[in-house]
Amino acid sequence: MGDSLFEGLPPPSHQQQNQEAEANDVSKTTKREPSTVPAPPKPALKSALKRPKPVEAKPDPEADGAAEKVAASGKRLRFKTTTDASETQVIEAMKKIASHIKTPTKFSKASKLAIQLIQAGSVKPGTSDHFFAILEAAMSSNTSCTDPSVRADYHALFSAAQDAAECLNKKQKNQLATWTVRAVVANDLFTDDSFVFSKTAGQVRDAIADLPVATKDDDMEEAASLNDKATTTDEYSEREETRSVAEAEENKGESDPFGLDALIPSAVKKDEKVKGKKDTPANVRKGEEEESKRFLKEQREALITCLEIAARRYKTPWCQTVIDILVKHAFDHVGRFTSCQRDAIQKLWASIREQLTRRKQGKSVNGKLDVNGFEWLQQKYAGEKISIRHSVGGSGDRRASQWLG
Question: N or C, which end of the chain has less CB nearby within 10 Å?
């Protein structure tokens, strides 16, 4: 063997010269004869991260037009998911909601549909009367708006109704304000949040302070309404109804011998009677006075309901101070209520004041002495048998009084 491993091999420079010469010879032969040199291998595929980004395809107007035609046909593609309902459709929906919202089992679903109409802006001057009919039907339900089963739904409905109040007339706004006290403010007094309870009590105090002083006429109207309720019975009403029907039949032949009244709608006859009298200034002023009296009457009754609900929560310790202030405020402004309501507020304040005196003496609402948490646990576990070995060796001598002191 030689001394070197590379013995007999040409130097690198000479090898490169030979390769360049061979390449030149091949290029000359390709001009005259078909190439017999194999094609170079295809480049290896790069990973997805190293590949160039694909060119975004430009929108095709013809394809878009075809998609719109398919969507218009209503077969498969539907790009428009919401439609604007006409006023007639909204009115029909409101009528259906008003017919179902009286049923307690359907109230939750019906009230949610009414809220959706409010949020969609469907309550307009043209549909406001039908929307007010929904609220009226809700308050005429046999179930009270403070009932635990529907309390949250009433609260949500009449809270959302405030956004549509601007479409109502003056009388409807007054009625909505009264219903709001019953459905929202009164229900807030059932809360377990001390902040909400205190804030709601403040709203009741402000509403009481805004009431005008009750007059003798208010007391007389209240007494008259109570007497009417006491003397009116089912038997009396049936007798009166029978008598009125008989009188109507007797007078029918005298006033309408030819039977023409049956062909004329009663609403038209009524309008003819009040024509020229309805829009007189005196009648307008009288109607406004009656509406104001009715509003004040219902407002006072709603606030009395709030006071009763708050007083029933006096057993809750963190409610007591707020209730003391609220009932004391109502007692200080008792002149803003009618006679029977004044008596109820005075009795309520006497009861609250008695319980307040007990609290100052260290007694609870039930008359027992107040105890702290440690004393309550000491009384509870004083007769309990406790063993350090759990179920083994419990002789009953180890009582809680030994470790509680």
Answer: N
